[in-house]
Amino acid sequence: MKKEVLSNAHSDKLFEQVYDYLLERIIRGEWKPHEKLPSVRTLAADFHVHRLTVFKAYQLLKQNRKVYVKDKSGYYVQPSSILPVNSQHDPIVSAYVHESHLSEIHQVQAAYQFSKALLDPNLLPNHYFSEYVKKVFDLYPKVLGTYSTTQGDQELREALCRYFIHAYHFYLSADELLITSGSQEAIDLIARVLVKARDTILLERPTYSPAIDIFRRQGANIIPIEIHRYGYDLDQVEMFMQRYKPRLFYMNPTFHNPTGYTVPAEQRKRLVEISKKYQCLLIEDDPYRDIYFDEEPPLPFFAYDTEGSVIYLRSFSKYIAPGLSIATVACRPSLMKLLLKAKSLSDSGAPLLNQKIFLHYFFSERLQQHLAKLRIALTIRKDIMEEELSVTDWNWSSPSGGFNLWMKLPESIPMDSLLRKGIEQSITFVPGSICDPLREYTSWVRLSYSYLNEQQLREGIKRFVGLSCSLY
């Protein structure tokens, strides 16, 4: 290794430079899996730093599961840390094995797409929707000739503000709302503004796969928080907040993706209090709130927040009008200023036409009535999926809302083979490890019942069960 000299940074930051140097070369595969890394003494000499500086860098790499230690031997490369150098003959399976890349699975053209947590387009009131497109051009004849503001259309933000106050008892103004092109843009924006390399964050386990990728790209140190049928272990959450001083806790607590679990109201109130105590922001992602099968879910965390401890993300893309890709961020003014500054550097705001169409479409009485019918249709589809799976002894919890069923298969079924053969037979699904910050859950899958019609669901699940059983 050639001689390296670090910049004249403060001595407390030198170990971070060593960490970055090592991490970059590990990820690029300059050291092979299980290969021994240079000793602390060697690196200290090469970098002209104290041995303790190198030791701290190695300890952080160990904590982040990039290296492991052999007693009295040294540090070695953790195999899961290295990016794939080639994708073999199947980039989908390679993406599953190595990183996350849910998007690659979504790109597969398949007859039975259980991977897509999207609504069957035939369940949307498409004719009614087209009437509103015409209406918008009548109301706003110059709508295509201007941009939206960066923060979003004032008329839409005021309407959403009234809606949130009435429906969920939020305490906010229209100036505390930001319109984005879907929730994924909102998560990305929050990560860029609030998270820098080596910041610690809490993330549910399992969780929404793109969120893992976004926070990893920022270089965050991710601490997983298990989500259960009853919610979170709040004692564990408080202990982690006290110990790690996390910057934020990203959560999807209502009809959770992928598990379908919902965090109860009493935990929501308590967690807001804990977050205030330890100054940890709660990022509440809420894309499925209207899709409940029995009782309405508890109020959002944001309803219990009076001091700016919660940022609320509400997407309407999943079941209102996916093609419009409208979401909103609710937060207090000090955070809004930061988000607006960052967003202004990337675009001039969500498309104004989409915002105006959504404004008149979403708040119409007919659309609100359609949501009740949509809940019935999705209940039926969920029941069909569970009925076809009942011939197995596999384990899952019946969701009370949302689009997904989270299921554990027998451990003897090799997931990479199941994914590969599924694609060959025109079946797609989401392997559980994609949703896991620790890349475990290798026997779990997420199956979405929202995208296929009833006949396709029955036939597709029969095929999935048969394929899985053939791999025992």
The structure class reads alpha/beta
- How large is the share of residues in beta strands? 5-15%
N-C termini distance: 48 Å
Helix content: 40-55%
Rounded to an integer, what's the Rg over CA atoms? 24 Å
Apparent shape: globular
Largest sheet entry: 7 strands, mixed
Low-confidence stretches: 83-91, 94-100
* Count of discrete alpha- or pi-helical segments spanning 4 or more residues: 16
The strand line-up of the biggest sheet is 4-10-9-8-7-5-6
Number of strands: 15
Overall pLDDT metric: 89
Supply database-style keywords.
globular, alpha/beta, 472 residues
Structure description:
By secondary structure, the chain is an alpha/beta fold. Helices cover 43% and strands 13% of the residues. It contains 16 helices and 15 strands. The chain has helices at 11-27, 40-47, 51-63, 91-98, 102-106, 126-139, 154-168, 183-194, 209-217, 234-244, 265-278, 333-344, 352-362, 365-389, 415-424, 454-470, and strands at 67-70, 74-77, 112-113, 177-180, 200-205, 221-226, 248-251, 281-285, 310-315, 327-330, 395-396, 404-408, 427-428, 430-431, 444-448. Strands 4-10-9-8-7-5-6 form a seven-stranded mixed β-sheet, with helices on both faces. It has a four-stranded antiparallel β-sheet with strand order 11-12-15-14, with no helix packed on it. A hairpin with a 3-residue loop joins strand 1 (67-70) and strand 2. Helix 14 (365-389) runs parallel beside helix 16 (454-470). The protein is globular. The two termini are 48 Å apart. Residues 83-91 and 94-100 have low confidence and may be disordered.
